[in-house]
Amino acid sequence: MRMTVIGTGYLGATHAACMAELGHEVLGIDVDEHKIAQLAKGEVPFYEPGLPEVLSRGREAGRLAFSTDFAQAAQFANVHFLGVGTPQQKGSYAADLRYVRSAVEQLVPHLEGHHVILGKSTVPVGTAAELQELADSLARPGASVEIAWNPEFLREGYAVKDTITPDRIMLGVRPGGIAEQVAREVYATPLEQGIPFLVSNLATAELVKVSANAFLATKISFINAVSEVCEAAGADVTQVARAIGYDDRIGHKFLGAGLGFGGGCLPKDIRAYIARAGELGATEALTFLREVDAINMRRREHMVNLAKRAVGGHLIGASITVLGCAFKPNSDDVRDSPALNVAGQLSLKGAQVTVFDPQAMDNARKIFPTLHYAESAEAALQGADLVILATEWDEFVQLDPTQVRGWVRTPVLIDGRNALDSSRWAEAGWDYKALGRTF
Ligand code: UGA
Description:
Elements: E1 2-6, H1 10-21, E2 25-29, H2 33-40, H3 51-60, E3 64-67, H4 70-76, E4 79-82, H5 98-107, E5 114-119, H6 127-138, E6 144-149, H7 159-164, E7 169-172, H8 179-186, H9 188-192, E8 197-200, H10 202-233, H11 237-245, H12 266-279, H13 287-310, E9 319-323, H14 338-348, E10 352-356, H15 361-367, E11 372-373, H16 377-381, E12 386-389, H17 394-397, H18 401-405, E13 412-415, H19 422-427, E14 431-434
The site of uridine-5'-diphosphate-glucuronic acid has 21 residues, from α10.
């Protein structure tokens, strides 16, 4: 099939490359000329394991190209995916929909015949219906547009796998259209493998996406709230999580207590969800998500306080090494990163902060140019009074505590992700501390 993917950020670039991998002919469209030039050369503008290979295969097979020209997009195909960003609005909890609206405004006036737009961006419920009205008002005589919503559930770090073999495919449609038939063709390969395909109205599909992210955020904040009680009671949150997770109604996933969630999705999605529920008059329905957000933000503050205590009560002049600044491992994304936030706060409070991350330092430098960025974990750890594990990259989890002890000035470590083997570090002479546990 021929299709375009409008928006070539994280979501769009991955989707475009993966659709080509499934055998489709794909044109990726973006207004950012620099990004398009990079992708056209086969360069992925962000770190995502496996994506460069998939992108190259698509280009070499002649199935994947990129352009900034919306007229070309209109000519190229009758199926268009919409994967532009929906960031948090400045000064508000709500999502900023200017990019999704703009994509429709730029594409639709060029269309001839019948076209299907499959929205993938995370949007507040009601957006697809609003975009349908916008598209209807812009379509030329003889042209028609059908908007459907096909939310994306990919995780950074696993984006290729999640796109090619998703847990489920969700599609919101208007009655009487052809979007379901189109989607069945697009996803023929995963559907043959028995991946669940759910069809609903537009509002339901939009809500599925934000509800999934809100649930995940709630699960993380739940265990982090328990973590606070564990510290007060002298209990161990990792053992609580492990024990409750054996109940398969609860499960072990997303019960990792620590610095909490960040990134370009969970934090802004729960806020946009609260805002939209309020606009719809369901004002009290999601008030608990404010608490989910508050618990999450408290983790960062708590880490800063713990760090202060660990260096004897005075941050000024203390030499602190923060391992990791990406919002999670296997990503170079520092958007709303708990790790970078903690490093930044410690630095603003007077500590000498050195950061190392295997992939995210270029992005971090743009936000926090004043931190000291080391070339390697070993270089970052030299002479440290305190080490904070803030992002659980495998490289850090594999560190040898005895060797690291020889690099630092004082062997004190706070495991912000409960990712290290505490007894191994303690046996090597470290004062090992962690969130939600007492030693
Ligand atoms: C999240 C969802 O997991 C995806 O399903 C969704 O498609 C995506 O948002 C999106 O809306 O685009 P992602 O932002 O890549 O994916 O990251 P997650 O793997 O969900 O992790 C989010 C944050 O939670 C990270 O900062 C991670 O460190 C933290 N986390 C995760 C915990 O603190 N504890 C856990 O147990 C798990």
